[in-house]
Amino acid sequence: MKKIFLAGTILMSAVGFAEARDLVVAQSSDIRSNVPGVNRDGNTDSVIFHIVEGLVGYAENGEVKPLVAKSFEVSPDGLTYTFKLRDDVKFHNGNAVTADDVVWNWNRYMAADTKWTCAGDFDGSKTIKVSAVTAVDPTTVTMTIEKPSAVFLGLMARPECGYTGIIAKESVGADGAFVAPIGTGPFKWAEWKKGEYVRLEKNEAYVSPANDGKPDGMVGSKRPLVDGIKFMVIPDASTVKTGLLSGALDTAEVSADLISEFKDSETMQLIVKRNNGKNLLYFQTRDKVLSNVAVRRAMAEALDLDQLVAAVSNGTGETNASMVSADSIFYSDAQKTKFPMDLEKAKKDLADAGYNGEPITIIANKRGNVPSFPAAVVAQAMMQQVGLNVQIEVLDYATQVDRRRSGNYQVISQSVAPRLDPALMYSFYVGNKDKNASLMWDNPKAIELMKSAYVEADQAKRQAIFDEFHKLMLEEVPGIFMYDMVDIWGATKKLHGEPVWQSNTRLWEVTLDD
């Protein structure tokens, strides 16, 4: 009874703000903080996304384009980036953004006491060291790095970094404590009632970056078309469903099993959008059984990927056996190559490998918004057809993550969040397993290709690197990539626009009928 009462209270509160023409959206948990890029998670990133903007941002196809900057140039040696700031960008307090603000923000991010999640990406402890950030004049900033990098700009645009958002100095109090983010985005910070909701207000003075009138990732048309946004904290999926059907919620992520119900609704619509995340079977290539590439190849040959993807995605997904997203500018004909199902070849590979029925366990979780468990079930059935002794172990998600990080597994059915540059996606899987047990693949050639992709800036040369990487992956089979992740959202039919992008709530260029 207590749970029902609480849910009803939350939904009644949502309705109250809906009358004021706020757009009401559900989130599964409260934000962790309101400090960009600090103590964050996915829900936190989605809120901050509407408030702050960085010098650059991602377009739909993964290209990095100017945002607070109107342009950027890279020196011939690849070490100095010169950013020209737009003259129409103002903070929410009305002050114009200057080069000094950019420098102040960078110094604050890199200060140890800020605890910025991405400091390690730029202090030299990983691949990039920013050696200088300089205000050349009020509208020009230069950033110098020690070695050329193809991913420098992309790293700054990441959600995990708080988009390296430029905030006003007044966001921090005189005592040095963070007060609230005063950004440049289409919505302004308004109120946070912890455990219940976060509310943002429309930025009436907002000016979009140059665009063709359409939303485009982080950098297209970004008009705030509702009076405000109320992010409701509703962890219970059944309460979210009730809120959507009753009209108390305008939009929210829903599980795939609600597709048929929402598809036929007179008042609700389904919004299905692919993102750059990955659904895959992640192999432990040092396992006694799976260290044999012939066994891994047989597992891939046993799968009818098109049938598997259709089944586990409720028809919303499309097969993609590449680490590169189908929406990426780097998704070439070479990336479309996949293992064809060949049951007889799989049986021969197992015989050649000396496989004798040794058990192979797939670890899965039963979170409703990912296909971990259903993918494991379908893969198990298909693999058993060729004589593979496949079992399934169901774990809670936190334990599954711990097992992957420790390297204690044979196969994991998992989903990995979006990373828009392929090199950044590779880094989640490839590297020295002795130093990082969570990595999937430590093939020296794969590591070399990944490192090259981090440095090479020429698009055609990067394409060749990614194509060679994919060919090598199909030969070595360190895992089986099934399909790009799909965001499935329910929304009232009064809502127009797309409220999600790359698993982030994105509520600019979204309207509500009266």
Automatic annotation (TrEMBL):
Residues 1-20 form the signal peptide. GO terms for cellular component: ATP-binding cassette (ABC) transporter complex; outer membrane-bounded periplasmic space. GO terms for molecular function: peptide transmembrane transporter activity. GO terms for biological process: peptide transport. Belongs to the bacterial solute-binding protein 5 family. CDD domains: PBP2_NikA_DppA_OppA_like_16 (cd08502). It comes from the Bacteria. Residues 63-429 form the Solute-binding protein family domain. SUPFAM superfamilies: Periplasmic binding protein-like II. Keywords: Signal. Pfam families: SBP_bac_5. It is found in: Periplasm. Its main location: periplasm. This is ABC transporter substrate-binding protein.
